[in-house]
## 1
Amino acid sequence: MSQRIKVFDTTLRDGEQVPGCQLKTEEKIIIAKELELLGVDVIEAGFPISSPGDFLSVVEISKAVKEPIVCGLTRAKKEDIDVAAEALRYAKRGRIHTGIGSSDVHIKHKFKSTRDQVLEQGVWAVQYAKSKGFEVEFYAEDAGRADLAFLAMMTQAVIEAGADVVNIPDTTGYCLPHLYGKRINYLFENVKNISKATISVHCHNDLGLATANTVSGVINGARQVEVTINGIGERAGNTSLEEVAMIFEVHKDLNFVTGIKPEKIYGLSKLVSGMMHMPVQANKAIVGANAFAHSSGIHQDGFLKHAENYEIMNPAQVGVLSSSIVLTARSGRAALKHRLSLLGHQFEGEELNTIYENFLLVADEKKEVRDEDLQVLAANIPVLVKN
Ligand code: KIV
Ligand code: ZN
């Protein structure tokens, strides 16, 4: 039996914190509605106390979406929780995401506090948020570096206080996948009331391991993943929604399913990238410009014989129109012949050899040979072959 994994999207909160990515409320509503169509379970719409704009966005997104839970972030403070509860009043289902640091480095240098005090404040925040009548998710900030026994104690205490979800963030992107997985497993083995809450994983990408850590967390029992479109987020970003969703699609043997409709992924990636002025790197998994582009001769030949030779998913699955063959000086005759045939030119034998030689000259000069260059080469072939 497949396990349903909840997708908690934080593009509009952790993603939007990135310098230059700030959105107007109207833009956030457009993205929130698209996230609903994509099939996410939770939309973290903002940090209501942080600014009047964020407050308004949480209010308007709460009105605009029907299916997903709308979530507002808070610190473990009364004023934050009061403001979040106010911002979420129109949500069909609202969630307050409150929390506090759990690692000694945060406890000592950020909160100038003690383990006992942060534990007490965390428990109080959960009880207070719960008293507002919302679902409550607790985040144990910097859990990736926290003392494990203390993290387990904190998790148990906040579940006891009523937390519906406990988020175990690798805030600094420090963990290695097998060790992050072990952390999650340790909680399942040592927190007595763990079955009363959902364990959530929220990973940052400082070492490029956010997706790997997230998957490892799920394999070890987490049932909610916190992600963003295109992996945008603080510093090196958060776990990418598209990567996690497609890992579960491609590796069906893992038996994890989400509610994500993969065919909507590419369109939303483009929308978020455009609105946030955040270009997607060309080699980004799933949504980068080169994710389904084949450029070396050996790969192009293999791909043209049978797409599965070099593609583990069909681009149409994620809403990309088609794979592409990029013609460069590394391309072979098979790719050239194929592209020419798409342009209506059939060349074989000597003609194909001649056009290929000329193609290489053009390719050495221009990095990529485009269809217009091929049309010129094709038009010259009768002359070149005659001479
Ligand atoms: O990375 C983090 O710890 C966070 C929390 C506020 C959930 O974003
Ligand atoms: Zn984060």
Note: The longest strand covers residues 94-101.
## 2
Amino acid sequence: MRRPIIAGNWKMNETIDQSLDLVTKLKSEVAEVNDVDIVVCPPFTSLFAVGKAIRGANIFLGAQDIYWEEKGAYTGEVSPGMLTNVGCQYVIIGHSERRHLFGEANQSVNRKVKAALKFDLTPIMCVGERLEERERGVTEGVVREHITRGLEGLSREEVLKMVIAYEPVWAIGTGKTATPDQAQEVHSFIRGLLRELYDEVIASKVRIQYGGSVKPENIFDLMREKDIDGALVGGASLDAKSFAQIVKYER
Ligand code: PEP
């Protein structure tokens, strides 16, 4: 059985005070949850404060990006050690906004994944096709490329520690969710790919989240699919009640 994992990507939202307000409300909303891994990914500026606020709680801290070098002249970047130092246990890598707005390529996704693992951070590696690619019928080709290049050179032990997030770009922030069938089809393809690249144990153990306009109203049907193990949530994670309802999808 794979343990569900619901992560909130706050993107470039919330000052420190707003972040503390949000996470304090969330903490009380989800206090009794013990069967789901809950992760919040505030902007870099709020990581330290939020990390302190959730110490000892059932919420993990994640960052939204990472750089692969340990230190040096890399203006504007944040190293793996800096993230663990503020209490991060997770890091989102290769989010579609990084790929498409900031030109992040598969090769740098792969370097970031390796750097995160080296520092015991769990990478949440995002993959997914754009609308035009889905319409051209190349969804599986795009996802195959993201996964094979993103995991290049990783041992099976390393891949076991990862989380993969399937996020069709056309569903992110658009209000258009993939149907449970559409999401399941790609999740099952990803699991098959893990079997092909590694083996059955890896394929059956790696958790695969769905992301793209997840809301309290659609989480239950998505989570009923056999290869969907959780969600990466953008917009709805900025409201403590909505995010808590998503976390408590079964209750
Ligand atoms: C995301 O940022 O990863 C995301 C899925 O956003 P939203 O839930 O707003 O579509």
Note: The mean pLDDT is 97.
## 3
Amino acid sequence: MSVTPALLATPTAGPVLARPPLALTNVTLEYPDGGGTVKALDSVSLQVAAGRMVSLVGPSGSGKSSLLAVAATLVRPTSGDVVIDGTNTAGLKDKELTALRREKVGIIFQQPNLLASLTAVEQLMIGHHLRGKSLKAARSRAVELLDLVGLTGSADKRPHQLSGGQRQRVNIARALMGSPKVLLVDEPTAALDHARSASIVGLLRRVTDEFKVATVMVTHDTEFVPLTDAVAAMRDGGLSAPAVPGALLNALPSAGGAE
Ligand code: ADP
Ligand code: MG
């Protein structure tokens, strides 16, 4: 299924963006399955403009995580183009792909994968140090981002001293360390209660606006979809045309609670 993603490529006002941070065109992903293959993504196209946030909904197994993995350049598609901030990733060697990902893509999974022995500020600093930045620069950016996500007093706490919501905030801050252009978020609230879920999605919205990143958030909490600019639904590896949140949710009674 091919999609015309004009809604997302065009800001609400002003000129059409020449280069959306994230552009997938006719992306197909097949996994080997017994003797044959399973199509996790079936000719998916999606563009997300800077400062826009798209929710991705759909039943379990429909390909949502596969779409994020391909957009994150963690998995190469079987065919189709993944263009990150103007660079077509198809032509890149593995090393170049890793460098592009570090520089341009922030990834946030459901369970914050934090290292038990490190403090919040250290969790953020590690990746930045890998990007070749000095420890001093890494620390000052880490402290800044922990402030931004509401963890000013928690910089020196280790994961076991933080709540689930606070750990997810560390995770979000860490994903922002490299100043990404694209933010990919897989079920960020699945392990959180309602109040914390709302504040995490609110934070992702604010980060999208402030840092002008192109954000895709997989969610089964349709309640939070109205905080995003558009919603697209996956089914059997195919992606619906993105729609304004209210319209699609009305048309899709099964969108909520499917997972
Ligand atoms: P969702 O995130 O919507 O639950 P996934 O993207 O995880 O869906 O999975 C889409 C389809 O691809 C499913 O049929 C799943 O079994 C299959 N799949 C996902 N990852 C792999 C993998 N690493 N190897 C083989 N099949 C996979
Ligand atoms: Mg998934």
Note: The domain at 5-111+182-251 is CATH 3.40.50.300 (Rossmann fold).
